[in-house]
Structure formats: C-alpha cells, structure tokens
C-alpha cells in the first residue's frame, strides 16, 4: 500500500537564462525552465556590484558613548575599530559573484571613492586592507594624533551623490584617493610558456666528406707505428726516442751526460692518418616560462568622468550602494547635489537620489539599489534611513556591537549574493506530467533542460514497495530533494544512475537500434541499414550534397543511440497477452522518435522516425541549434502523446487481435500518425494525415491527443473513430495577449476513421467543415471529452473548449448529421482573456428536475505559464438539454453563472458556477477529473516568494490541488471518510505545473489519489461508475461492463471522464 505521507517532491532545476522582455516573448510552456535573461548572450553572468560608503566622520573616533571628535581610549570598542574589523571579515569572506568597492566621507565636501568596484581576490585584498588602514590612523594607539583619520563631519547626502555619480559614470567632482595612477590590477594573465627555434652548430667526426664543401674540414694526425714504408708519403721517420733507461752496453744506448738521461737510439716510425670533421647545424626548440602580467585593471576615473562598474549588457548583473553611518547627517548642504534637485533636508534629498537610482529611467537605464546600515542609531534617524532604503529598493539594518555590525553587513551581502546567483547550468529534472503506474511498477519519463534546442531524456522504471519508491538497491528518492537520490539505481540500470538522465533506464539498453522511417508522408516503413552508405540518402538525412562519409557516419552514430526529451509525451502501455507482464511501453520524444520499450528489461523493440523529422535529422544529431534569443527552442519532434487501440483477443490473457497506435507532434508539426504495432518488433504504417490531407487544411499544430471512440455510421452500425481538435495556431497565440478576429488554423474538430484516417465528419469555422459553425473562429488544441451515457461503446456527446474561452457540445446523431452547440462563452479581453487548452471533465448528476450533465473546465494560458495578466478560474456548466434531446438553453456566461469565489453555493436557477483563483497568475494547466461527486484538478501559480526582479533567477512557482463538490461548489475531502477542509485548494510540494490527478485502486479496493509525484489521499472505491476518456473494442455482450482497459491516455486528458453522482 502506498504510504499517504510519502511525498516524492520534484523540484525541476532550470537550465539556462531567459530574456528580460515581457512574458509573451517565450512562446512556449518551457519558459518555466528558464530565467528571463538571454541564454545566448555571453555577457550574462551572475554578478553583483556593491559600493560601500564608509562613515569616516569624527564621531567614528568614539566608542558607544561619547560625542564630538575626541578619541575613545578603548581601542577595541571604537566605532572605527568595529567598522574596520567587520570590513576585514567581509573582504575575507566575500562571495565570488559579488564585486566590492569602497567610498568614504570627505570632510564636509561630500564623498570620495577609495577603491573601484572590483573582484575580491588575492590580488586585490591588499588594496582593501590598505584602504581600511588609511581611514583608521589611530588603530594602534590609545591617544592618536588629532589629525589622524577618521575626522570631519557627516555630509551624507553629498557623499551619496558622489557614490551615485561613480556608479552612473558621471563627472568626477571630488577626485580619487589612492596610488597606482588610479588603477588596480584585478586579474593576472596566466604564466605562459614561450618557445622559440634556435639554430645549434655542432662539429662531428665522419669517416669521410667532400673537402670542397666548406662544412667539411680535413686534418692530419701522425701516429707512432712499429714500422712503415718510407717510400709512402704517409710514412716518416722521426727522431730517436727517449726512454727512461737502457743498457749502455748496447751500441744504440746512449746516456746524455748533462741531464743524465737515457736515450735509446731506435728509429721512430710515424704514419699519417686523416680526420674528417663536418660542421652540422640543427634547429632546436628552446622554451621558457614568462609571467603573464596584468590582464585586467579597474579604474575610478577616466579623464573628468568616473568609470562606472555597471555593465548594461549583462542582464544578470545587479548593482548596489550600501551607506554606512553612525549618526545623522551634519555639515551637509544637499543643494549642492547634482544628480537630482534637492532642498536643504538631507534625508529628503537621499530619498530622491535613491529613487532616481532605483528606476530604469536613470542615465544607464539600469536600477541601482540602495541599502543602509547604521551603528547606534536612534529611532528617528533609523526611520529616516529606512525611508531612503525603501525608495532605493534595499534593506536597512541597525547594529549595536561588533557582532551585530558584522551580521548587518553579512546579511546585506547575502541578500545581494542571492540576487546575483542563478541556476546558470541545467539541472536534472523529472517531468511529473510524464509518469504512470502499472501494478506495483512506476515508470518515469525524465529529461534534462539545456541551453540548446536539444535536451536529453530517458524512461526509467521503479517499484512501489510498502508505499515507497524503490530501485534495485532500496529506497530511490532523496527526501531532501524529492528526486532520485545520488546512490539509487533504477530497475533496468546496470549502474548507479541516481538523478542522472543520461545514465541507466531505457537509454542504456539501446544497442543496435531497430529504426524504422518513412521517406514520404504516410509511406511504408523502412528499416534503416546502419552499414549502408546511400540509403537513406544524405539529402534525406538533412545533409548537404557535399557531406563527407565522416559526417554521415557521425550523424548515424548519434541517431543510433540518441534519446531526446519526452517533454509532453506521456507513455502508453499495451499488454500483448499470455501474462500480465508481457507489456510494451510506447513514448515519443523531441528527438523525433517514437520508442517501443519492453517493460521486462527496458530493451528497445523499435524506434520510429517519420519523414518530417528524418529530412532534418542533422538538426537532432550533429548540428543541434542553440536556443533562440528569447530562449525558445528551434526544434521539436514527436512531442505529442499517443493512445493505443488494443483489439481484444478471446479473453483477457489472449494476445490482442490487433494493436494500433495514434499520436501527433504538438509543436513538432501538423501531422497525426497511425501505426500497426500488432507485432511490437515489426511495426507498419497504418496511415498519416496532415494539413495537406483532404478536408484537413485547417489542421494546426497537432496538440490534441486523439480520443478513441465510435459513432453511428448512419446505417445502423458503428464505426471506430479518432476524434481530434483542430490543433494550435502559434502565430495567433504565442506572442499575443489579445484575441484575433479569427485564428489562422486549428478552429476545427475532426472525426477520422480509426483504420483508414479518412475524414468522416468535421466541424468548425472553415469552408472545409462538414458542419460549419460560425462561432468556431479560434483554435481547439485540447483533446475532446467523450460521453457515453449508456456505456454501449458509442459516443453520445462530446465537449471541448477553445482559445477564446468558449465551450461547445457535439451531439451525436444516429444518421451521422451531428449537431454542434455553443454552450458557454467565458472569455473576454484584458484580465478576462481566458483560454481553454485542456479538455473538460463531464459528470452525470441525477437531480429532482431531471438528469443533467455538469461540464467542468479550467482556464489557463498553457503557452505562457508565467503570465500574470489574466484572472483564470474553474467553470462548472450545467447542461440541462443534452440528455433531454430537445429544448434550448441560455448561453452560459459569468453573468448567469454563480460566482462562488468568496464562498457560498450556486443558485438552483443559475447556468452553473465558477470561481477565480486566488494567487496572482494562478491558472489551470491540466484537465480536471470527477470522482464520486467531487472535482479534482490542479493549478499553477508562477511566483511564490521569488525574486522577480532578478532576470537570471528561474521563477519557481507553486502547484495546488483543488478538491470541490461538483454540485455545491463547497470544499470537499478526498473521500467520505475525511472531514471537509476549510479551503477548496491545498498547496502541493511541486514547484512546476502539476498534472491531472491520477486515481489508482489498490488491492483492498481503496482509491489512492496521486498528483505527479505526491500521494495526496485515499478513499473507498464505492460505486463511482467512473469511465475514463478512452475506448477499446468490446464484444456486444460486454459493452456495459466497466473494466480496466489496456489503453493509456495522456496526462492532459486523463481526467476527461464521465462520472455519475447522486448530486449530494
């Protein structure tokens, strides 16, 4: 049993940075994964510039008590000492995203910049310490000189004006006060190894060489030999040899009498030999290390103007001035301020300066915030400081000790640092919308946002064990993050994969991929031969005619292993008979593929890529484009959800007679595909339709997840159909807050023959429609809710909304002449510009006046979840005429429906009821579900305690679950076993849009409610007579049997169901 207290929190880390322009710039619901700064701008790096103005007035010589400029003899408790020590600690611990500069008071003439705003590092810390020493001349003496710093008055407004001039890069009024020609080296270039070629000359002996060559030198050497032929020029006889001793009795022994040395008179033969020496020059590389030197300097002034530290091209940069003082202004003449016009009141002048700096209208068009930190402030002075900080968008702190002064600076810099930081690299994210459960198995489609139009994805399997999510090595979820813990291992993985999207799962199991593709729309599937050098052709793969074999190989290698992101595609599982575990999961991705995964081991049976994607395969593999300048993706693939028609076999364990899959592309294109996957290893094309098909020119982007049902064919039989909305019109709704006169595409509903794809009937505001409906002027991207009143497998009514806030009903007629009625108009302009992206849920209510259908639909700008301009809500429309077969009813509007936002119950005579959501920007982004007389649906609010002003911070939001009584509109518990809550909504842990609530039945017959990754409650099954918006072929004698089908629906429509309630 699932532990109801277990919350599997998923916090989607965002990638990247987003553009600072109105919310309508990001034409996609992926804007929740991005900040507003431009991800492609290399200038955009998290950074804060902070100029700290230090009070160096004479009162800083005092301790807590004291006045004037007399020195306190207690060195440690002097105010300047407290400041000195606090600033040394700040400089020691400064975060690397915060750059700091120092300013100071300058007598009564204003302020002075001591140090430019610069990084705090090993190179610059000595400058900071020297500057601090310079303003604390008496730090080592109990009785410093009267001329030592600090000294002077407190001209706060004038000094603030000088600080502002520096930050804005205005004229230099009061000069600088440090050495090194006004420049500080803040970064050294790395030492560089410099190498050069040197010619080296060597003389080597050789056996012989050409003596005519200048490099060849021949020399002679005479060596003593026993004998040689004196007739040869190389032989000579030299003088007698001298020896140490010889026998004088011998005739050739002679002793020189003068030196008494012996000489042996024997001929000394010498033979000449030639030595050849060759002069050889070789080039050798000689390397040495050269110091890099300074590669970045910071200056305070350039000529007569300050050098502003503000980089207006960096959208992720924030700018701040911190004013520190120990008392009220003195010696101040605000009339001398140049930035704004001031009177004589210092604080009023400071408020004006702070307000000017904090506006986009200053000379840099970049806000600069002002903060105040005081020491020993009185109440009135502190109140004035708070007024300055409020005008400057900053904070105010007071301190009364060394510790609290340090804390004040640290808290201020912590806030600034937090404002400077951003999630500048993508984080691992699980898409909570893409999760489903089968038996005790959990399957998660996961993806990783990235600063690119291509994101990595995966499908992973886990298991429910005693109410917890387990992998192979036990508990898989990190309770601190709500995502998979670092050491966890999912069920199919051979390694620890944890939160890493690129490890384990189905992605790891891909071997030699069985990739099937088409080369024409609706053409036969072909299996790709990875070894072929020509099929498909380079042109069919999106490669140019000049592509090399290496480029083709690189593309195919990536195509063989890639796994894109399943951003909106929800997995669907089909059982193939024999046993409950013979299942395959089908899920498609923005890599342009549909994947068929064997649930037993995660192996891939096949992948399918249609011609529309194949012909630009290079964009999904080797030439992946970056994000656009507004952080929108340039490429999508098969981003729609699929549904399966499993034609049942002889019994529940039999193999199906046939299995067909149907799915669209969402933002990837304008096609629907039908595949025959009866053999999950050998798929075939059933049919394909697009906006070029007969009767479908109005088809937009195929957002509408198909709904399978059947309708009468006019001759007493029924025909299986696929019903889809006309789709999405991006030109009309991506970037516009206003309503067009009529959308360019998508304002249709199509009935397609499920086996042939032929348009059997259509309705809409276009000439091609079988039933032309004048009010159908706007796109229908949602799925269609189908109502089967008598459970005979044939649709009786269908409901859908459009992007103008209208709701329509299709009444199915036996003769095929179906009727379309507009039953509600709930949109408008401005804050009432409501859109219905998701399908409604429909409930049957038995009332004393007759049975009625209650149509529940929520509004929300799905393409822009961060939009805050519209007041969205949930609307419950009473359809009194659908079941009576005749009669007319007044169009439901917010005027004739009961507004229960503030409480109360709907009037019995009203056309229904509604309430608007309480949080700013709160909207419904998933379909509702009706269960046991209750409506369950989720909403998303884009901002919850977030720093909206920081363009580089991802705006995490908050998801909510609403549980409301269908008839009374009162807050409802999840089951009859629980007391009704005080509120209709409860906050979820999820910080991104939550999906439709999922209702699971455990072995004990209890209904467990799961929203995304959170188990939110349970209740008894009872007799809800709940039928999902899905269909499978049943024999006539089983048509009224409510049974769990093998067909899985998409998350956007999972709650589009028909319920029956007693109206309580």
TrEMBL record:
<keyword id="KW-0732">Signal</keyword>
<dbReference type="GO" id="GO:0009289">
    <property type="term" value="C:pilus"/>
</dbReference>
<keyword id="KW-0479">Metal-binding</keyword>
<dbReference type="GO" id="GO:0046872">
    <property type="term" value="F:metal ion binding"/>
</dbReference>
<feature type="compositionally biased region" description="Polar residues">
    <location>
        <begin position="984"/>
        <end position="993"/>
    </location>
</feature>
<feature type="region of interest" description="Disordered">
    <location>
        <begin position="978"/>
        <end position="1000"/>
    </location>
</feature>
<feature type="signal peptide">
    <location>
        <begin position="1"/>
        <end position="27"/>
    </location>
</feature>
<dbReference type="InterPro" id="IPR008707">
    <property type="entry name" value="B-propeller_PilY1"/>
</dbReference>
<keyword id="KW-0106">Calcium</keyword>
<feature type="compositionally biased region" description="Acidic residues">
    <location>
        <begin position="1051"/>
        <end position="1064"/>
    </location>
</feature>
<feature type="domain" description="PilY1 beta-propeller">
    <location>
        <begin position="581"/>
        <end position="819"/>
    </location>
</feature>
<feature type="region of interest" description="Disordered">
    <location>
        <begin position="1027"/>
        <end position="1064"/>
    </location>
</feature>
<dbReference type="Pfam" id="PF05567">
    <property type="entry name" value="T4P_PilY1"/>
</dbReference>
<dbReference type="InterPro" id="IPR015943">
    <property type="entry name" value="WD40/YVTN_repeat-like_dom_sf"/>
</dbReference>
<dbReference type="InterPro" id="IPR011047">
    <property type="entry name" value="Quinoprotein_ADH-like_sf"/>
</dbReference>
<protein>
    <recommendedName>
        <fullName>PilY1 beta-propeller domain-containing protein</fullName>
    </recommendedName>
</protein>
<comment type="similarity">
    <text>Belongs to the PilY1 family.</text>
</comment>
<keyword id="KW-0281">Fimbrium</keyword>
<keyword id="KW-1029">Fimbrium biogenesis</keyword>
<dbReference type="InterPro" id="IPR036465">
    <property type="entry name" value="vWFA_dom_sf"/>
</dbReference>
């Amino acid at each position: 049993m699932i532990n109801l207290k277990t919350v599997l929190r998923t916090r989607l880390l965002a990638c990247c940075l987003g553009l600072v322009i109105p919310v309508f710039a990001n034409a996609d619901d992926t804007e929740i994964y991005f900040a507003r700064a431009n991800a492609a701008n290399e200038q955009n790096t998290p950074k804060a510039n902070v100029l700290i103005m230090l009070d160096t007035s004479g009162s800083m010589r005092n301790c807590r008590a004291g006045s004037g400029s007399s020195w306190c003899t207690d060195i440690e408790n002097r105010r300047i000492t407290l400041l000195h020590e606090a600033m040394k600690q700040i400089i020691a611990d400064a975060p690397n995203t915060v750059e700091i500069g120092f300013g100071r008071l300058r007598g009564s003439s204003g302020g002075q910049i001591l140090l430019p705003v610069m990084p705090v590092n090993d190179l610059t810390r000595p400058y900071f310490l020297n500057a601090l020493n310079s303003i604390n001349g008496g730090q080592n003496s109990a009785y410093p000189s009267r001329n030592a710093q600090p000294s002077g008055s407190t001209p706060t407004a004038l000094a603030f004006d000088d600080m502002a001039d520096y930050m804005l890069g205005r004229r230099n009024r009061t000069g600088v006060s440090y050495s090194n020609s006004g420049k500080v080296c803040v970064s050294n270039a790395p030492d560089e190894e410099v190498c050069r070629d040197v010619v080296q000359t060597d003389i080597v002996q050789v056996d012989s060489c050409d003596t005519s060559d200048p490099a060849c030198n021949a020399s002679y050497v005479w060596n003593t030999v026993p004998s040689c032929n004196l007739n040869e020029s190389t032989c000579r006889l030299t003088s007698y040899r001298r020896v140490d001793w010889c026998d004088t009795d011998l005739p050739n022994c002679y002793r020189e009498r003068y030196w008494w040395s012996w000489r042996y008179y024997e001929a000394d033969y010498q033979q000449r030999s030639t030595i050849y020496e060759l002069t050889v020059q070789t080039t050798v590389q000689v390397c040495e290390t050269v110091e890099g030197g300074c590669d970045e300097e910071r200056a305070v002034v350039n000529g007569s103007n300050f050098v502003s530290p503000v980089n207006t091209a960096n959208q992720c940069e924030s700018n701040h001035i911190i004013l520190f003082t120990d008392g009220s202004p003195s010696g101040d003449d605000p009339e001398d301020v140049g930035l704004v016009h001031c009177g004589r009141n210092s604080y009023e002048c400071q408020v004006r300066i702070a307000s000017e700096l904090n506006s986009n209208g200053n000379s840099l068009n970049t806000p600069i915030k002002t903060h105040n930190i005081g020491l020993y402030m009185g109440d009135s002075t502190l109140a004035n400081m708070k007024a300055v900080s409020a005008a400057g968008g900053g904070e105010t702190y007071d301190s009364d000790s060394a510790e609290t002064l340090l804390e004040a600076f640290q808290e201020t810099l912590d806030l600034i640092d937090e404002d400077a930081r951003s999630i500048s690299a993508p984080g691992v994210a699980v898409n909570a919308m893409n999760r489903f459960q089968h038996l005790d198995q959990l399957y998660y489609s996961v993806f990783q946002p990235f600063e690119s139009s291509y994101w990595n994805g995966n499908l992973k399997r886990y298991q429910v064990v005693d109410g917890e999510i387990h992998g192979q090595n036990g508990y898989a979820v990190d309770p601190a993050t709500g995502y998979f813990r670092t050491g966890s291992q999912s069920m199919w993985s051979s390694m620890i994969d944890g939160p890493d999207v690129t490890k384990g799962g189905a992605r790891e199991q891909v071997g030699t991929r069985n990739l099937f593709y088409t080369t024409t729309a609706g053409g036969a599937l072909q299996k790709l031969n990875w070894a072929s050098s020509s099929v498909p052709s380079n042109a069919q793969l999106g490669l140019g005619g000049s592509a090399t074999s290496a480029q083709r190989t690189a593309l195919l290698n990536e195509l063989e292993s890639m796994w894109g992101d399943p951003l909106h595609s929800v997995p669907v599982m089909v059982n193939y008979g024999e046993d409950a575990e013979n299942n395959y999961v089908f899920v498609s991705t923005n890599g342009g593929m549909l994947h068929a995964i064997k649930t037993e081991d995660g192996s891939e049976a096949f992948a399918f890529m249609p011609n529309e994607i194949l012909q630009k395969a290079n964009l999904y593999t080797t030439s992946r484009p970056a994000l656009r300048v507004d952080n929108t993706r340039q490429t999508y693939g098969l981003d729609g959800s699929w549904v399966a028609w499993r034609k049942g076999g002889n019994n529940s364990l039999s193999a199906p007679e046939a299995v067909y899959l149907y799915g669209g592309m969402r933002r990837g294109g304008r096609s629907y595909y039908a595949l025959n996957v009866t053999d999950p290893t050998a798929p075939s094309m059933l049919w394909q339709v697009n906006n070029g098909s007969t009767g479908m020119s109005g088809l937009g982007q195929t957002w509408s997840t198909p709904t399978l049902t059947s309708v009468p064919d006019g001759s007493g039989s029924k025909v299986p159909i696929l019903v889809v909305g006309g789709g999405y019109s991006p030109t009309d709704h991506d970037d516009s807050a206003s309503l067009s006169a009529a959308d360019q595409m998508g304002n249709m509903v199509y009935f397609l023959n499920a086996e042939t794809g032929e348009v059997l009937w259509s309705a809409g505001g276009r000439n091609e429609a079988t039933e032309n409906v004048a009010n159908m002027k706007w796109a229908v991207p949602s799925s269609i809710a189908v109502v089967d009143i008598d459970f005979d497998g044939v649709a009786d009514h269908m409901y859908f909304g459009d992007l103008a806030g209208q709701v329509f009903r299709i009444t199915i007629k036996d003769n095929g002449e179906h009727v379309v009625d507009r039953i509600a108009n709930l949109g408008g302009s401005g804050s009432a510009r409501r859109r219905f992206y998701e399908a409604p849920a429909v409930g049957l209510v038995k009332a004393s006046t007759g049975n009625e259908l209650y149509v529940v639909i929520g509004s929300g700008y799905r393409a822009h979840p961060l939009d805050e301009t519209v007041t969205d809500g949930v609307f419950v429309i009473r359809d009194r005429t659908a079941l009576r077969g005749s009669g007319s009813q007044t169009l439901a509007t917010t005027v004739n429906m009961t507004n229960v936002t503030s409480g109360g119950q709907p009037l019995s005579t009203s056309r229904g009821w509604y309430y608007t959501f309480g949080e700013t920007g709160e909207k419904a982004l998933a379909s509702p579900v009706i269960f046991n007389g209750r409506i369950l649906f989720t909403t998303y609010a884009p901002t919850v305690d977030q720093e909206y002003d920081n363009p580089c911070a991802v705006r995490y939001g908050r998801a909510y679950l609403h549980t409301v009584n269908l008839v009374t509109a009162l807050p409802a518990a999840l089951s009859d076993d629980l007391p009704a809550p005080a509120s209709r909504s409860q906050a979820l842990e999820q910080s991104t849009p939550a999906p439709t609530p999922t209702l699971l039945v455990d072995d004990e017959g209890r209904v467990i409610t799961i929203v995304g990754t959170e188990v939110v409650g349970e209740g008894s099954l009872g007799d809800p007579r709940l039928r999902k918006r899905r269909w499978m072929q049943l024999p006539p004698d089983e048509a009224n049997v409510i049974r769990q089908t093998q067909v899985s629906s998409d998350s956007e429509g999972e709650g589009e169901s028909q319920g029956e309630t007693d109206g309580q």
